[in-house]
Design a protein that fits this description.
The chain has 83 residues and is of the alpha+beta class. The protein has a domain of 57 residues. The protein has a two-stranded antiparallel ribbon with strand order 1-2. The protein is elongated and about 85 Å long. The structure holds zinc ion. The site of zinc ion (ZN) has 9 residues, from helix 1.
Length: 83
């Protein structure tokens, strides 16, 4: 028996399993329960959660139109001409 790092084919979460052989296709227990129609918490985010995440992401990264153009560095000091 060995411990293998596997990725759930459904929710893409990394899990560690203790098996005799590395599984070729892995679905985590939670996904299995959800797929079986059991009352389990779905590890996949709901549409609402994804929608909210997208809105938060949009707020974090402004679109190019929202980015203020860089101010031209204007020299506040009058040009020192001769002295
Ligand atoms: Zn899963």
């Amino acid at each position: 028996m060995e411990t293998f790092q596997v990725t759930c084919t459904r929710c893409r979460q990394t899990r560690w399993v203790y098996m005799a052989e590395a599984p070729t296709k892995f679905v985590c227990q939670r996904c299995q329960a959800v797929l079986a129609g059991r009352n389990a918490v779905d590890p996949l985010p709901t549409v609402g959660q994804r929608e909210r995440g997208r809105r938060l992401a949009a707020r974090r990264t402004p679109t190019p139109a929202e980015i203020q153009p860089a101010q031209e560095p204007r020299s506040a000091l009058p040009l020192a001409t001769g002295s």
